[in-house]
């Protein structure tokens, strides 16, 4: 918090969420400590006059290329040889290049001067079964999809049988939880098998969540239940299909053993089926991976640098090759108006890119109404990926204060509307960590946070403009819309999908303006009908000036406004069936969520509003460790 106070005092440019994200004042507390005004003279970085447009876009283009690489497989070649599990090309750069714990036991303890502990999966299984799998993730690994049919596949991907070439370990990290430093946390129930390199030299880390105890399990059992594993698997793949940077999931297997969980922390534990998700990402490095070592003093500060070098070398290699130049410089906007060249410090360039990736990710969350629920710094990826799907939720009725996390209810720190500000707070902690390790100076730290604010607003405004089918951003129109949606608790997903049916026809009678939105505007009185009619009139007036046909606009809007999102009640229906041994609904739901923007005739029930039972405890609200 001292850093943030200093930044505000020095007029470093951050952003003010209230003015552009959700304008109505009642959405927010005026004393929210996580919002900062962005200074007019710092709305854009002041680049050197010698910089050409191609160079100016370096950070944005690299980030976009990374996301595209993560979201798509551009190699359509049929000649690529598909591999068996035993033929995967394993690499173990994390283990090879970073300091290791000298012990390999799983006794809960403080692990000092190490980035990881080598530990074997210890989960017990009894007739494990394959619940669901992702062929698109297998394609990233160049794994033959026939491997999913192997009788021993569930044994291998549960960790019960060793996978040839794997070198399992658990990562050591810390983090701020609900704004308070929690010290060492680490992978308490996730065990990384290693990294697989495909034929394009893409690096994919495979991790088993729920595979048994590690030194970071503390008092927990290191296991996971089918309920939370289904949610993680489905949301990982659903987010990918929505175009949001995310970790992925290769498969989900049951263990055949029960796990005891007290879901509501009310003293009534029950046995639930155990399960394991194989998560996949280019890296599971987190903000907290760096924070822990910086918090431990001088002896461990060098680990922060080593870990930063590792991340840059393997995941941001373009930053290694920059040469000192005036072409990527910025004005700090402070009294001395000093300029800093990002190419003179790769760590500063890295911090900026991490900040921008984080901002872009959160802007996309806001666009589809996704609430993460646990934005602790140990749940923030340095690659800008959505990571650790716990008590997440997509907005049903639009409520900016919505949180899916029962643990978050008292203060709603991680509610939907606060996510952009919390992202900034987390980036500030990350920048502070790098500063503590003397990798950044204050101006570079401040600039990384400034760029977060600028990137978030740029991306968010672009997303909302597309969602409404507008020719340009209209702050007043979008703010009024969100205010009306909040007042009437309008379904977020369905409303924006229906909005594409509005015609840019100024001759439509006033009493017919709301017909295209009738399915979303339920049970509203005359006063509210007048408010909505007024907004639709203004909206049609704006559309009529764009010169875009209704058909073209509808197609464009439907490409960014999903018809299907992974609502919690849909997850619960699949979970209820799976717990009885029927995995068909999990697989069917995966297929629907892989095409969220398509109409998918016959699947309309998956776009319905939540039924009454969806509001019972355990469906819409979950705790952090559920």
TrEMBL record:
GO molecular function: AMPylase activity; ATP binding; metal ion binding
Keywords for this protein: ATP-binding, Magnesium, Metal-binding, Nucleotide-binding, Nucleotidyltransferase, Transferase
Pfam (any one): SelO
Keyword rRNA processing attributed: no
Highest taxon of the lineage: Eukaryota
Keyword Nucleotidyltransferase carried by entry: yes
GO cellular component entries: chloroplast thylakoid
UniProt xrefs under InterPro entries: SelO
Required cofactor(s): Mg(2+)
PANTHER family with a match to the protein in the record: PROTEIN ADENYLYLTRANSFERASE SELO, MITOCHONDRIAL (PTHR32057)
Family under the similarity heading: Belongs to the SELO family.
Name of the molecule in the record: Selenoprotein O
